[in-house]
Design brief:
By secondary structure, the protein is of the alpha+beta class. The protein contains 6 helices and 6 strands, in the order H-H-E-H-H-E-E-H-E-E-E-H. Helix 3 crosses helix 4.
């Protein structure tokens, strides 16, 4: 029995734990999800919920609307400036192994920034130093995330359209 439970933990066969939260650190059902969201008490990985604000041109482009080239260049520059600024701020707390900004426009993931530090202690320092601060006029909300492999951290809703 224990072997079977270990094999299905965090998969869609697991009827107790949310596989979406386990895989992507977010769930489109939010608080109404019927499965448990196992939030780690400490992790190398953190998620900064909705930290990045997509410019309107980027959202229009993702919706397959025609967007002027100049607006797309401006959106790319906006993203690169954001990425550099956030990366440099996070690097003050320790070595960053990986950082990803969700390019998914689903409500549960839009603008989420996932950061994996080399050690849990570095992530803890970032949590203590950043949670509740302000960025672009909004309160920074961060929490530890179960995500360990960013390549797999994609919402199927995003992949399927």
């Amino acid at each position: 029995m224990a072997d079977r439970l270990a094999k299905i933990f965090g998969t869609e066969e697991d009827k107790v734990n949310c596989p979406f939260y386990f895989k992507i650190g977010a769930c489109r059902h939010g608080d109404t999800c019927t499965r448990h969201h196992n939030k780690p008490p400490l992790s190398q990985t953190m998620v900064f919920s909705h930290l990045y604000e997509n410019p309107p041109a980027a959202i229009a482009f993702s919706d397959s609307l025609k967007v002027p080239e100049s607006a797309l260049v401006e959106a790319v520059n906006h993203f690169e400036d954001f990425y550099e600024e956030v990366f440099m701020e996070l690097a003050k707390f320790g070595e960053i192994e990986e950082m990803a900004v969700a390019d998914n426009i689903g409500d549960h993931m839009i603008g989420n920034v996932y950061t994996k530090f080399v050690t849990e202690e570095q992530a803890k320092a970032a949590m203590q130093g950043l949670n509740g601060r302000f960025y672009a006029g909004r309160t920074i909300m961060c929490e530890y995330s179960p995500v360990s492999d960013f390549r797999e951290a994609k919402c199927r809703q995003y992949n399927d359209g």
